[in-house]
Specification:
- The protein is α/β, with parallel strands linked by helices.
- The protein has helices at 2-22, 39-58, 78-90, 103-116, 151-165, 179-194, 213-221, 233-245, 261-267, 287-300, 308-328, 333-341, 387-394, and strands at residues 26-32, 67-73, 96-99, 120-122, 144-146, 171-176, 201-205, 226-230, 252-254, 275-278, 347-348, 353-354, 373-378, 381-384.
- The strands form 4 sheets. Strands 2-1-3-4-5 form a 5-stranded parallel β-sheet, with helices on both faces. The protein has a 4-stranded parallel β-sheet with strand order 7-6-8-9, with helices on both faces.
- Helix 2 packs across helix 11, helix 5 (151-165) packs across helix 6 and helix 8 (233-245) runs parallel beside helix 9.
- The longest helix is centred in the first third of the chain and has 21 residues, at 2-22.
- The model is unreliable at 1-21 (pLDDT under 50).
Length: 397
């Protein structure tokens, strides 16, 4: 009898242990700049990921397990990004990573995800080389995926807007000295060359530079009719404000960072008319996207999303990872990678509906300009620059 009781007790303990193991959280790393000049993108991305994770948990989690986000501020510093990638993988035991805003941080940190066979879905960083760091034949498997629009696509749209639509032939390139700015400048030069245009000036500035007068004076003297930009919000605001101080106002067309709240707020009326490619615009009029914006506003007590594409891409990256975990029925890194490369579930995201977004040889969810639209700053909001984009966006759902 005693042996029976002991056996029953052991069996009960085993069931409890199994139940506890089944309910163990799925730990997912979330990294980005949550402070500093890049923080509008980082915070918007993080909050989009949080919103998706909350919805998943409210619906019962993934495979019966709750999602637990392990968040770290990389401060937009490559060395900090590399440090926290190792911390998340080796000490926090995350099963996958989401996030990364800055191209330099991505290039410094994602090698640790690659080495550990932990999938990383880049939610925001746009440097064209990001998903190409670990390609065959040198690396049989690539663990880096991306949902943001690569700079090759953005550069093509920027040049199309400036050279074809606005008919500017004499343009200057203004870029920051980070990996993001320098690689973006190269993409712009290649895109201009395809249209037979050579920039009349190429001007560089550093992060936290406030006086752009020398660069602007040189561009004006060279006869620039417009400025193409690759930088971040605070410095881009100094470019816009500096033009007004010089009494010289020409169109600004640049990467999606012209949609950052710290550009729009710091430049104020001087930001009006700036144009940039966007994966998502807050004024989008489809029911699904309106619900997302409303949930975001209620959850975080704000009216304007800090950077709407970053919020949407963060949200979508969490949904894609959840679909991969469901398909793999596992959090094992190689099985998650294989699931992402052969995703069977159609995922209705905010940027788009993802239907087999990745493959073994293509880890870019966005590899054409079709999902992109041109945004414009009007009255301190980013809106559709063209009615045709607004109509196409409304018909996309």
């Amino acid at each position: 009898m005693l042996r029976f009781v002991r056996a029953a007790a052991c069996a009960a303990l085993g069931l409890l242990a199994a139940g506890a193991a089944a309910a163990e959280p799925i730990r997912i790393g979330v990294t980005g700049p949550f402070t500093g000049g890049s923080s509008p993108m980082g915070v918007a991305m993080r909050d989009g990921i949080r919103l998706a994770a909350r919805e998943i948990n409210d619906a019962g989690g993934i495979l019966g397990r709750p999602v637990q986000l392990v968040e770290r501020d990389d401060e937009a510093r490559p060395e900090r990004g590399a440090q926290i990638a190792q911390e998340l993988i080796n000490h926090e035991k995350i099963v996958a990573g989401l996030g990364i805003v800055n191209t330099g941080v991505a290039l410094a940190s994602q090698r640790f995800y690659q080495q550990a066979h932990v999938p990383m879905i880049t939610s925001v960083a746009t440097g064209s080389v990001i998903t190409k760091q670990f390609l065959p034949p040198q690396y049989p498997d690539n663990y880096i995926f991306r949902v943001s629009a690569p700079d090759t696509l953005q550069a093509a749209m920027i040049v199309e807007e400036a050279v074809v639509r606005q008919r500017l032939r004499r343009v200057a390139i203004f870029h920051d000295s980070t990996n993001y700015g320098q690689l973006g400048r190269e993409d712009l030069e290649r895109a201009l060359e395809r249209h037979g245009v050579k920039p009349v000036a190429i001007e560089r500035f550093n992060i936290r530079d406030a006086d752009m007068t020398p660069q602007l004076a040189r561009a004006r003297a060279a006869g620039a009719e417009g400025i193409l930009t690759y930088g971040l919000g605070p410095e881009l605001a100094h470019v816009a404000n500096g033009m007004v101080r010089l009494g010289w106002k020409v169109p600004m067309v640049g990467s999606w960072a012209l949609a950052m709240s710290n550009f729009i707020d710091s430049a104020g009326p001087n930001a009006e008319g700036a144009r940039m490619p966007q994966t998502f615009i807050q004024e989008s009029d489809t029911p699904h996207r309106r619900r997302f914006v409303e949930k975001y506003r209620i959850a975080y007590g704000i009216d304007r999303l800090p950077v709407a594409p970053a919020a949407a891409q963060g949200y979508d990256s969490m949904l894609l990872l959840a679909a991969a975990i469901r398909q793999a029925r596992s959090t094992d890194g190689p099985r998650l990678k294989d699931a992402l490369e052969s995703l069977k579930e159609r995922v209705e995201g905010i940027v788009m509906v993802y239907d087999r977004p990745f493959s073994k040889t293509d880890h870019e969810a966005i590899d054409t300009t079709r999902p992109l639209v041109m945004g414009e700053v009007r009255n301190r909001q980013v809106v559709f620059a063209y009615d045709e984009d607004r109509k196409r966006d409304a018909q996309s759902r």
